Amino acid sequence: GKHTVNLDNRTADVRVKPFTLEMGIKFELHIIISGKKINVSEIPELSIPEDWMRDKLELNFYKSQNGGGEIENVEYDKQSRTAVITFLRPG
């Protein structure tokens, strides 16, 4: 439908259009676990920007159901297809 949005004291009429989302990609990771860091290797090459890959890794390892926790840092090296995930707390 049609909607009106207020932007910086101006209004804009916008219309909603459906679009198709791309299917998700499943991949296998190989990891080495220490007290506070996880080394991830053999990350598949995907045609997405490096910051998106860092975000995907962070979201995956943040999930408590996967044994994750709060992330301090994600270092991703696209060339070597590796990453180091650093958690705020060891565990």
From TrEMBL:
<protein>
    <submittedName>
        <fullName>NMI protein</fullName>
    </submittedName>
</protein>
<dbReference type="GO" id="GO:0045087">
    <property type="term" value="P:innate immune response"/>
</dbReference>
<dbReference type="GO" id="GO:0005737">
    <property type="term" value="C:cytoplasm"/>
</dbReference>
<dbReference type="Pfam" id="PF07292">
    <property type="entry name" value="NID"/>
</dbReference>
<keyword id="KW-0539">Nucleus</keyword>
<keyword id="KW-0963">Cytoplasm</keyword>
<dbReference type="GO" id="GO:0045088">
    <property type="term" value="P:regulation of innate immune response"/>
</dbReference>
<dbReference type="InterPro" id="IPR009909">
    <property type="entry name" value="Nmi/IFP35_dom"/>
</dbReference>
<dbReference type="GO" id="GO:0005634">
    <property type="term" value="C:nucleus"/>
</dbReference>
<keyword id="KW-0391">Immunity</keyword>
<dbReference type="GO" id="GO:0005615">
    <property type="term" value="C:extracellular space"/>
</dbReference>
<dbReference type="InterPro" id="IPR012677">
    <property type="entry name" value="Nucleotide-bd_a/b_plait_sf"/>
</dbReference>
<comment type="similarity">
    <text>Belongs to the NMI family.</text>
</comment>
<feature type="domain" description="NID">
    <location>
        <begin position="2"/>
        <end position="73"/>
    </location>
</feature>
<keyword id="KW-0399">Innate immunity</keyword>
<keyword id="KW-0964">Secreted</keyword>
